[in-house]
Known about the structure:
The protein has helices at residues 12-48, 57-71, 177-188, 194-203, 210-222, 225-236, 247-257, and strands spanning 149-151, 160-162. By secondary structure, it is mainly alpha-helical. It has a two-stranded antiparallel sheet.
Amino acid sequence: xxxxxxQLPDDTALLKQIIVQLQEALHxxxxxxDQLTHRLQQLLRAHFGQKSEKxxxxxxxxxxxxxxxxVNQPQxxxxxxxxxxxxxxxxxxxxxxxLPRKRVVIDVPAEQRKCGCCGQEMTRIGEExxxxxxxxxxxxxxxETVRPKYACKHCPDGTVITADKPRQPIxxxxxxxxxxxxxxxxxxxxxxxxxxxxxxxxxxxxxxxPSTLGGWMGASAKLGDLLLEVMVQEVLASDAIHTDDxxxxxxxxxxxxxxxxxxxxxxxVA
Length: 270
């Protein structure tokens, strides 16, 4: 909408705001013109130029619809200044409140809390707080499971009893559940090979060769047999099954289909 000179306000600040809005509208129009010109050139090149592959007419119609949509899009006018949106700051993100926090107070020494002017004791009026991220490296520890033995001194048979040992992920194995979960997660989620994990444990003074970690992985895979059975039954109950035709998946499918009825499948170990 054209505005006559006598209709413009006399306020200098308002005139500056109108000029800024006109500049923004001009830059937006130039960008839109450049985009439309580029798309128009693509259409002309695809229609008249020499090209081995013909462009789909439906794609040309899509370009035309986008061009018409941008042309018909209403542009903001200086008479309707848009509300200014505050820009987001570029400072640091706040640290999560769920992280454990350790409060360290660095106080002014008692001899410095006296006023240098009158010599009276100064009063605390507040505090300044800053945050810093610290890291505690993961550590390993040994769990000693003690089971006291009991015997009857009055019976001649000398019966000795102890408490039942808790079930372990690997029978008579060295790793605990948390250790196995850490090794599995590091390998499959964090993509840390077993030889690198062995080196990481070595820096903590724990010798765990990659072969030992590999044995843990194989034993852990057997723990998933029950879950695997349930997953297979769920898949076979589906109306459609999508499979991967790679060599590894074919080998696994043949191994599964050729197993005896009722026998457990051997879980693949990567």
